[in-house]
Amino acid sequence: MKASVIGFVGLPLPFTQRPHYVSQRKELHSTPPARYGIAYMQASTAGAKQVLSTDRASKLPWTETIANDECPLFFMPFVEHQLSITRELPGLADLPFDEHLSYQKSEKPVARIESWAWKSTHFRKIRATYIDAGYKAQVFNSVWYPNPSYEHPLLGIDFLSFGKKKVLCVMDFQPLSQDKNYLEKYCARVKGIKEKYEGLSGTMSARFYDEAQFFSRQLVFAKFDNPGPIGSELFPAFKEYVEEYVNMIMEASPDESESSVSRVLQLHKDYDQYSAERDPAIGLFSTYWGKEWASAFTHEFLFSDSEPISEEQH
Ligand code: BLA
Hints:
Layout: H1 5-9, H2 20-24, E1 50-51, H3 53-57, H4 76-86, E2 93-94, E3 97-98, H5 99-102, E4 103-106, E5 111-119, E6 123-132, E7 138-146, E8 154-162, E9 166-174, H6 180-187, H7 191-196, E10 220-224, H8 228-251, H9 258-278, H10 281-289, H11 291-302
Helix pairs in contact: 4-8, 10-11
This protein binds biliverdine IX alpha.
Biliverdine IX alpha is lined by residues 129, 131, 139, 141, 143, 156-158, 160, 168, 170-172, 204-205, 207-209, 279-281, 284, 302.
């Protein structure tokens, strides 16, 4: 029997649940002002075909791995849940990007990677990526960037499984400032959620990132030697974090002042640069799809406000 997503998590997917904010939300400013016309995605390669995430997302979920090892798609329920929330967002629209960045497959080793991106009235960019290389790698990675009239944290998600015994899960309301009041106001609110899930309160290493920049103390951080907790702990925690995050942004009062918007945009840019320079995934992308594609994917899709740094600066 082929492994099934639902069989693994053991829960019916929450398609029919309407997010709690839908009934609660206040009528907010309808469309973002024109000055948000920043580079949501890096300029596409001239003439490259652009794709729409909505079309491709309608073909989800993937139900079995592309590799020949029957590995369950551990994080596909997370993609589906996130999609069900995203689809309800007011003002949802595709963020078109180059086709070659949206999907790639490799034969040796067998792997595929697909990505999606949208914007909405409250979010300037919501991007998500799934990697399926069977047991070798299962990854769900996503970042939510609010419109720059909100100084709020970004929602960062990085869930990975390598081999049969290595699961790494990181999720955070990623703060744009380490100011005590900022952290208290925007990040501390998930403390109650995090405390419910004992297995998710590990500490990140200093191997790749600096925990004092763009991370908070409410970071969900977990390493497991088996996939069990993905369904029992991570999935419910993920649903609660996403709901809390979306509610926080939808209920916030935007600051449209030129000074605030440009300050926040600069911080998003700093986040993208910081992340692009530290992201350990670049090696993984290179292994499957080559160095050039890895660099384009990183700087044009994942962290599209980042600039590549030269080899010497590395
Ligand atoms: C670690 N993330 C990692 C590692 C890989 C990725 C390969 C190293 C795992 C290890 O060898 O221990 C993979 N990162 C990816 C992939 C993508 C990516 C596949 O961006 C893109 C598709 N990383 C993020 C985001 C957060 C994040 C948004 O991209 C924030 C929640 C966190 N990833 C994060 C942290 C670590 C990590 C903190 C280091 C874990 C440690 O301390 O060891």
